[in-house]
Amino acid sequence: MTTPEERLTELGLAVPEVAAPVAVYVPAVRTGNLVYTSGQLPMRQGALITTGKVGGEVSAEEAYACAQQCALNALAAVRAEIGELSLVTRVVKVVAFVASAPDFTGQPGVANGASELFGQVFGDAGVHARSAVGVPVLPLDAPVEVELIVEVRG
User: Fold this and answer.
1) Would you say residue 1 has pLDDT above 90?
2) Closest CA relative to residue 69, chosen from 5, 12, 145
3) What is the third-level CATH fold of 4-152?
4) Which of 29, 37, 55, 93 has its CA 20 to 30 A from that of 148?
5) In 40-69, which positions are buried (b, 16+ CB within 10 angstroms) versus exposed (e)?
6) pTM summary value
7) Burial of 72 from C-beta contacts in 10 A (0-12 / 13-18 / 19+)
8) Beta-carbon neighbour count of residue 94 at 10 Å?
9) Is the Cβ–Cβ distance between 25 and 16 less than 8 Å?
10) Other C-beta atoms within 10 Å of 134: how many?
11) Per residue in 3-62, pLDDT tens?
């Protein structure tokens, strides 16, 4: 059986280093068998991959890619907390915040960038509850932010 990291490699992706917090918080907290991540921005190598509002300066396709990067960053936070992603038994909940132009209503499609990745990486254990919320602005003018809750072994 392949590991989550091996499945990411097959997709041409990898878990990045944990993104540095932009304020006073930690990237993830474990309580019992649950790990909660802080909101993860679409950071790659220390910088946002794009900025602006979805449906304005940022296309829905670009925002989908941002959500995928947020998901990778959330996985990095989880892995840093538990040691290896193969300890994840279930993706429980995903919350995607989408900085949206006033008339943009495609938040669920943007959030699919994260949701589809979790399904590809964890299979049936990656199927989760989700909220996709349009907001007027996110930190650093990021177009997307994703939070994750996972259940883990031991």
Assistant:
1) no
2) 145
3) 60s Ribosomal Protein L30; Chain: A; (3.30.1330)
4) 55
5) bbbbeeeebbbbbbbbeebeeebbbbbbbb
6) 0.97
7) buried
8) 26
9) no
10) 19
11) 999 999 999 999 999 988 888 999 999 999 999 999 999 999 999 999 999 999 999 999
> What are the extents of the domains in the chain?
4-152
In total, the chain counts a number of residues equal to 154
Cα–Cα distance list, 80 to 10, 26, 34, 62, 116 (Å): 21, 11, 14, 27, 22
What type of residue is 138? L
Strand ranges of the sheet holding 144-152, from the earlier edge strand across to the other edge: 28-31, 34-37, 144-152, 88-99, 129-135
Q: pLDDT tens, 83-100?
A: 999 999 999 999 999 999
Q: Are 130 and 93 in contact (CB under 8 A)?
A: yes
Secondary structure of the chain as H, E, C letters: CCCHHHHHHHCCCCCCCCCCCCCCCCCEEEECCEEEECCECCEECCEECCCCCECCCECHHHHHHHHHHHHHHHHHHHHHHHCCHHHEEEEEEEEEEEEECCCCCCHHHHHHHHHHHHHHHHHHHHCCEEEEEEECCCHHHCCEEEEEEEEECC
